[in-house]
Amino acid sequence: MGQHYKSLASAIITGVGGPDNINSVIHCITRLRFYLKDETKVDKTSLEGLDGVAGAVYNKQLGQYQVVIGPAVEDVYDEVIHQLGSNYAGGTDETDPEIDDGQAVHPRPKTIIGWIKYAFQLLIGTITGSMIPVIGLLAASGILKGFLTLFTQNLHWINPESSTYIILNAMGDSVFYFLPILVGFCAARQLKSDPIVVATIAGVLVHPSIAAIWATPTKGMPTLMGVPLNANFFGLPIHIPQYAYSIFPIIFAAWMARPVGKWLKKHTPLALRSIFVPLFTVFIVTTTVLVVMGPAISLVSAGLAAAINWLVTLNEAVAGFIIGGFYQCLVIFGLHWMVIPIISNDIASTGHSVLNGLINFTMIAQGAGALAVWAKTKHEDLKGISLAGALSAFAGVTEPAMYGVNLKYGRVFWMANIGGAIGGFLAGLMKIDMFGFTGSLIGFPSFFSPHNPFNIWAFVIAATVTLIISFVCVYFWGFSDADIQKAKAAEKKNVFKDVIE
Questions:
Q1: Which of 245, 312, 330, 491 could form a disulfide with 335 if both were Cys (CB 3.0 to 4.6 A apart)?
Q2: What is the Cα–Cα distance from 20 to 37, expressed in whole angstroms?
Q3: How far apart are the first and last CA of the chain?
Q4: What are 179-234's pLDDT values in tens digits?
Q5: How many domains are there within the chain?
Q6: DSSP 405
Q7: Residue 81, by phi and psi: left (phi above 0), alpha (psi -120 to 50) or beta?
Q8: Residue 464 lies in a domain
Q9: Whether 12 and 61 share a structural domain
Q10: Residues 11, 116: one domain?
Q11: Is 188:180 a contact under the CB 8 Å cutoff?
């Protein structure tokens, strides 16, 4: 069968005019779709006479020459790309020629520390590459959520019990709640998995019935290292965490779906592939995420949450420095979700949260970092993304700034964290407290204290210092337009794909 695909692919390439006439090629469920330099060079008669080709047609509207294969299209496509080269795969080239000059990727490191740094860069490249298509929507939704909070909790222009609020909140929150589905689709495209299958897996993770398990009270349930085992799967006790708003579990799923799908495709009869390959891929990958990945993240985040809470009670200034410098690292991998219940419990039981007040400055720092990139870059596209990310971070949502700009150009993230660390340290020295949940600049009303008039000034001082230091550090030492090429190289390669290959 493999030899048949090899000869068929070679004949198809010849039939569409040879490699020199091909710009790129993609496939759908049944057809190879060629982007050609000159469609008149195609030998339609010879193509339609091939054993394995059901037809050939030029779609003028799409600019594609389509060769109808049927269920074996993916096998033929793989062989076509094998013969042409990987640079022909995936449709038109989406890189920006102005900033992607084709420079070679830096050679792989030879030391342990170098490998750790290299792996981290590739991991971040995978995450940011998976997030880029949704960054604009994240930023817009973050700004909407920020203004909605301002209009409801601070200005009281909108009643939070009204249907108007419910509708507007759904507009702002939808992209975040269903983020695993969006990111899963994008990650699958980057990691060469089936986007529809991975999006379906993400749909399982955010399904209302799964979310209901997470939301169920856990009192009296068995625990593992403090994490409640709130479900069981075929008799195996497991923990179902909050998957909405998360990205790392579904990126892992997108990585795993590729080798699983390839193995199943290889061992499944052609007539059954369209049903059983996606069926078993969804089952195997979803089971792995629910039984292994989710609980592992919950255990790690629970331990980190306990350590952070202990640190705050031990020394507020030291806690502010550490939290300000490193808290957003937890956000990257979704490890911050076990911290949220601590903050919620503090506010519900006492009306305030010192921990939330310290975390606040990490948001301001990331916004200031993105703002510095906006001020320095000469590329208009990056200016738009970075300004939107900064505004979203100042409205309390840091993901657009981090995934769209700061992590993508690594030094931006760390230089911005310097401002967060110093701002958090100052806030801790001044014994800052917070009387609401919404943070960053838009959450300033939460720092008006009924017992301590200086608290709001502590916020103003620490926020100003955070803004200035983060902006200056990023502007002078954290970013240059030369970093854009390095980020492109990291997105094209990624640690997950390297493992597969």
A1: 330
A2: 8
A3: 23
A4: 999 999 989 988 889 999 999 999 999 999 999 998 888 778 888 877 888 899 99
A5: 2
A6: I
A7: alpha
A8: yes
A9: yes
A10: no
A11: no
